[in-house]
Amino acid sequence: MARVTSEWLPPPDFVDLEPQQVDVWRICLDLPTATVKQLESILSADECQRAARFHFPEGSNHYIVAHGSLREILSRYLHCEPSQLNFSTNEYGKPELEDYQLEFNLSHSGDFALVAVSQNCKVGVDVERHRPDLEHEKIANRFFSPNEINELMVLPPDLRTTGFFNCWSRKEAYIKAQGLGLSLPLDSFDVSLAPGEPAILRAIRPNPDEATCWTLVSLQVESGYAGAVAIEEQNLEIRLWDWGKIIQ
Predict the structure, then answer these.
(1) Can you list the residues of the chain whose pLDDT is less than 70?
(2) How far is CA 63 from CA 36, 55, 97, 162, 170, in A?
(3) pLDDT digits (tens, 9 = 90+) for 65-115
(4) Where residue 151 sits, what CATH number does that domain have?
(5) What share of the chain is helix, strand, coil (3-state, %, to 5)?
(6) Fewer Cβ in 10 A, N or C end of the chain?
(7) Where in the sequence is the domain holding 141, given as residue range(s)?
(8) Is the pTM value of this prediction over 0.70?
(9) Contact assessment for residue 34 and residue 229, using Cβ atoms and an 8 Å cutoff
(10) How far is residue 14 from each of residues 10, 27, 76, 78, 141, measured CA to CA in Å?
């Protein structure tokens, strides 16, 4: 069973990561212009080009803050300059560090981003802003497993939006941890989704016993958001750090 910090804490000046620890960082993406410019200065040329492709300044700024903060966070573990980090992607598009052995994952939605970091186990993280305007039931019927659809539909109507995004964020976290992209069907595994109940990876097909190798934890990012982290390991300590305590 995972031991999880009860709240998002200010991080220490120096962060050490033990093999049985996983860190999750919460990042607020709405920052002053001067801070955005400082973070932009440590991005690679490719990242700057990607940021420039957004049609609206908010999207560009959020990308800069998410990816600049990722560099700053990883550099704390690796004791190097943030601008020195080089990233590549595997054949399914999952980002990786080229010169260092450190597992990480980034997700951003709305006004928040999450970064998960581990030493040597697969890790995936996801954050989703609730969008009541989405056709939740239609999307669930297309992508969720039959067990998840049944669990969603027995919820009272006023809880289904929360249940949908609980499910979506947990499934995305697991898929991102596996690093296999869309080659891993969303209906090939089951997660829990009921509001107020623990996050559980119930089954993985075709090998249901594989689910016992994983830890799935729900993250309370902010009101109106769902978050989750998936880790291919058990008996972990999960530490929650608030990056905003440093950069704001």
Answers:
(1) 245-248
(2) 10, 12, 19, 26, 22
(3) 999 999 999 999 999 999 999 999 888 888 999 888 899 999 999 999 999
(4) 3.90.470.20
(5) 40, 25, 35
(6) N
(7) 3-247
(8) yes
(9) no
(10) 12, 18, 7, 11, 46
